[in-house]
Amino acid sequence: MHLYRDEYYLYFDIHDTGRGINEKMLHQLFEPFFQVSQNTESASEGTGLGLAICEKLINLMDGDISVVSQENVGSRFTVRIPLYGALNSSDGQTKYNLYKESTIRCFISIKNLYLESFVERYLSYVGLHCQLFTEVTQVSENDFIITDHDECLDNSCQFIRIYEHYFEPAKKISENNWLCSTYKLNELIKIILQLPQTKLESDDSENNALMTDHDLQLLTVLIVDDHPINRLLLTDQLKKIGFNTATAEDGCDALAFMQENHVDIILTDVNMPNMNGYQLATTVRELSSTIPIIGVTANAIAEEKQRCIDAGMNDCVSKPVSLTVLKDVLLTYVA
């Protein structure tokens, strides 16, 4: 196994020198209960759930997993996970300053000390300096507390409750109470930016990306992705930009939707079952449609972009897609 970091991603390369996998079987590899070897007498017999579980866990971290294999040679699995909040080593500057001209304060009260330390360090990367919440801490309505306690520590401020048994996107559950998954701590920043009195100081492009353009509500972006979590994430981002959205699970589902509904832009994952993004783009172009098609790919390389263009797409973006990049690319194709 080889572990390395490249820009804002953490990579795991796992080399398997076994028998290799037939190319026809690769697209089924991450399906539950699928096994390459059907030999029931094999000493390595399993349930066929391992890779399916791995993929789901990686997707929960907004990551992806890919495989390259050759029969009688072996396989290489590559896991890529985004490092949210990673600093740019060239300037060492934080991306945001959430406290400009504000009296807001951040407090932490987390039972798990390792998690508490991680949250504190993560928020420090974006300019938030947190304090520990104690029984004698005095808070105001402008302050907020990040906690994993079930009971309410103080009713006079905002609460962000992190919960290990919650797996959905972060949401507001009451006037001053937010819920965030322990496995999606990158969403803490999104919550904090919505709290009362929070000011954001960033570059102009980031500020523009967080502003809603009401004119865009007349345009529908069709999100095509076989993973529900990815569809939810992209839907949330597009609504922040101001677009109306619709979703489809694969290329076949997308074509069926387009027969009955008007779509202004297609935002599609490139790797999907039944009909992938490349096949979808080719089919749409064969229908003489000029609708803008943007591919979403795990490989931020020139060859991958060229493959998207050759299939009929207008452009492509790499995962994880930031709000700024998404808005800049989509607005390029808005008439």
Automatic annotation (TrEMBL):
One of its GO terms (biological process) is regulation of DNA-templated transcription. PROSITE patterns: ABL (PS51426), HIS_KIN (PS50109), RESPONSE_REGULATORY (PS50110). This is histidine kinase. It comes from Proteus mirabilis. GO terms for molecular function: ATP binding; protein histidine kinase activity. The modification 4-aspartylphosphate is found at D269. One of its GO terms (cellular component) is plasma membrane. Residues 102-202 form the ABL domain. The gene is rcsC_2. PANTHER family: HYBRID SIGNAL TRANSDUCTION HISTIDINE KINASE J.
